[in-house]
Amino acid sequence: MTSTRLGPGDFAIPRAEAPRLEPGEVHVWAIDLDPPQQQAAALRPLLSTDERERADSFRFDRHRRRFIVTRAATRRLLGAYGERAPASVEITYGANGKPSVLDEPELEFNLSHSEDKALVAVSRSGPVGVDIERLRPLDDADDIARRFFSRREVKTYLAQPEALRPRAFFNGWTRKEAVVKALGEGLFLSLQRFDVSLESDAPARILAIDGRAAEARAWELCALEPEAEFVGALATPWRPDRVLGFAAGRQLEALPRS
What we know:
The chain has helices at residues 37-43, 49-56, 61-81, 141-148, 151-158, 165-183, 213-216; strands at residues 5-6, 11-12, 25-32, 91-93, 99-101, 108-114, 117-123, 129-134, 194-196, 206-209, 220-224, 230-236, 242-249. It is of the alpha/beta class and 258 residues long. The strands form 4 sheets. The protein has a 5-stranded mixed sheet, with helices on one face. It has a 4-stranded mixed sheet with strand order 1-11-12-8. A two-stranded antiparallel sheet has the order 4-5. A hairpin with a 2-residue loop joins β6 (108-114) and β7. The radius of gyration is 18 Å and the shape is globular.
């Protein structure tokens, strides 16, 4: 892979149809979850019965709308890549919560959302895991790091200047979450059993698994920054040839159709 980071300028708005997903590629979509109300309402029929019931359980309209847009947009994407109607896409979940398309298991995907932004990663070449968080200070970030980060990561995190700690924390958190999500139903990997890079001026990498650098070399990490205030990561237990970013923007008509 030629880059371990996709910044805001790498998430380009594509044509109306899904771009061709070549062997060895991963496509990552950044989706705005606060479109005009009329657009969000038009997406509701794409949800499954269970998803509509879950949407109705949200107390606040904003949370309900973002849930609907996330699930419907994911169906639109999977339907476009699979050349089928979005409503016909049946998503199932493994024992550890990893999603898959019921009758198209070779179409690997993963999704994550934070506030008004979602990321959806798609590939036909191997498992993918993605995570995103809005960059913000956390009062208990130091305690969370000590609890969930590895010893090596905690040392690196605490060595960062105070102003850089929030980004270092979310670099570590999203990268570790993306790795765990990519594993899915495979080997369960405790967050403290592997080390990732945290520094903003260092490439996104898994440094070691169980203290061994050799085991980490089969993995690829890519830092994702669809907008300046968001931090994300893509993890694959294989080496992609290319990772491409796309953005739907506020006008959801920019999402591909089958």
